[in-house]
C-alpha cells in the first residue's frame, strides 16, 4: 500500500510546478469554485498510476492545481464513494497521496439530509464533529506510519478553522448552522425511522461521504474543515420523496454562499 502511495506521489511530483499545502475535495455545493482557480493545470485520474477511476458516467474526475486567492492549491474534482463499490483504502487513497505531496490543510464539502428540526433546505452546516456509521473502517489493516495505530479524534475538525469560518459568515451576512454529520454507506436515502434513529444518536445531518477522508486526514496529521449543504430534510412532518436531481438543485442554489466561505477561509488558512 505504502509503495503504491509513494509511486503515485512521485508521478504527480514529476508533473507539478507548484507546492500546494492546501487541498479541497470539491463535493456537492463546491463545483463553481473550479472557475475561481487561476493558473490552472489538470491531470485526469485515468492518467494517474494506482488512482481509482470514477464510476459515475460522464465524470472522469481530475486533479486540478492552481491558485485561489494567491495561494497554491490542489483540488479533487470528483471523489470516490464507498457505495460505488470501492474499498475504504481506495476511497481514501487520494488523501494519503496528499500527505506525501505536503498537504497540511484539507477542505471538504458534501450534500446531506438534515435531521435537526431547526434546519431548512438550503442551509449550510459547518461540521463540528462526525459519527462514523460505515461498515468498514478506513484505517483497518496494517498501520501506515503516517500516524499512530490508535489516532486521536478529539478534534477531527479544526476548531480554529471553524471559528474563522463563523467570523467570515458573520462578515458576509451568510446564515450558517453548526452540527454533527453522520456518514453512512448509502446509496439509498434514509427511511423515516433511520432519520429518527440518527437524530437520537446525536446527528444533525446524514450523508454518504466525507467521514472516511476526514479520518485518514487526521491520521496523516492534516487539519480539516468540513461543510454540508442541507439538500433534504429527515424531520418528522417535513419528510418528502427525494431524488438526486432535487438534491443537486438545492446544492446549486447554495453554491455561491458556500464558495464565498471556502474562498475566504482558504485565503486565511
From TrEMBL:
Keywords: Glycosyltransferase, Transferase
GO MF annotation: an example: purine-nucleoside phosphorylase activity
Pathway per the UniProt entry: Purine metabolism; purine nucleoside salvage
Enzyme Commission identifier(s): 2.4.2.1
Leader sequence residues: none
Occurrences of domain Nucleoside phosphorylase (ranges): 23-266
Matches recorded under SUPFAM superfamilies: Purine and uridine phosphorylases
Function: The purine nucleoside phosphorylases catalyze the phosphorolytic breakdown of the N-glycosidic bond in the beta-(deoxy)ribonucleoside molecules, with the formation of the corresponding free purine bases and pentose-1-phosphate.
NCBIfam families: PNPH, PNPH-PUNA-XAPA, PRK08202.1
Family statement drawn from the similarity comment of this UniProt entry: Belongs to the PNP/MTAP phosphorylase family.
Name this polypeptide is given: Purine nucleoside phosphorylase
Taxonomic source organism: Phocaeicola acetigenes
Amino acid at each position: 500500500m505504502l509503495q503504491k502511495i509513494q509511486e503515485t506521489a512521485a508521478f504527480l511530483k514529476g508533473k507539478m510546478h507548484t507546492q500546494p499545502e492546501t487541498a479541497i475535495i470539491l463535493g456537492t455545493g463546491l463545483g463553481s469554485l473550479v472557475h475561481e482557480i487561476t493558473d490552472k493545470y489538470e491531470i485526469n485520474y485515468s492518467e494517474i498510476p494506482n488512482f481509482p477511476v470514477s464510476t459515475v458516467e460522464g465524470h472522469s474526475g481530475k486533479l486540478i492545481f492552481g491558485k485561489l486567492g494567491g495561494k497554491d492549491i490542489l483540488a479533487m474534482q470528483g471523489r470516490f464513494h464507498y457505495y460505488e463499490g470501492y474499498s475504504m483504502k481506495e476511497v481514501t487513497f487520494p488523501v494519503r497521496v496528499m500527505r506525501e505531496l505536503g498537504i497540511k490543510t484539507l477542505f471538504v464539502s458534501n450534500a446531506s439530509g438534515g435531521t435537526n428540526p431547526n434546519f431548512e433546505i438550503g442551509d449550510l452546516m459547518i461540521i463540528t464533529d462526525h459519527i462514523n456509521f460505515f461498515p468498514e473502517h478506513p484505517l483497518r489493516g496494517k498501520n501506515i506510519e503516517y500516524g499512530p495505530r490508535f489516532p486521536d479524534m478529539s478534534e477531527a475538525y479544526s476548531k480554529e478553522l471553524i471559528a474563522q469560518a463563523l467570523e467570515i459568515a458573520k462578515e458576509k451576512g451568510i446564515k450558517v448552522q453548526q452540527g454533527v454529520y453522520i456518514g453512512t454507506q448509502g446509496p439509498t436515502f434514509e427511511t423515516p425511522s433511520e432519520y429518527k434513529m440518527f437524530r437520537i444518536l446525536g446527528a444533525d445531518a446524514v450523508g454518504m461521504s466525507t467521514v472516511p477522508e476526514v479520518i485518514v486526514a487526521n491520521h496523516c496529521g492534516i487539519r480539516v474543515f468540513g461543510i454540508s449543504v442541507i439538500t433534504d430534510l429527515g424531520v418528522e412532518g417535513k419528510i418528502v420523496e427525494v431524488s438526486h436531481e432535487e438534491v443537486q438543485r438545492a446544492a446549486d442554489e447554495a453554491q455561491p454562499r458556500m464558495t464565498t466561505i471556502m474562498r475566504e477561509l482558504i485565503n486565511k488558512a
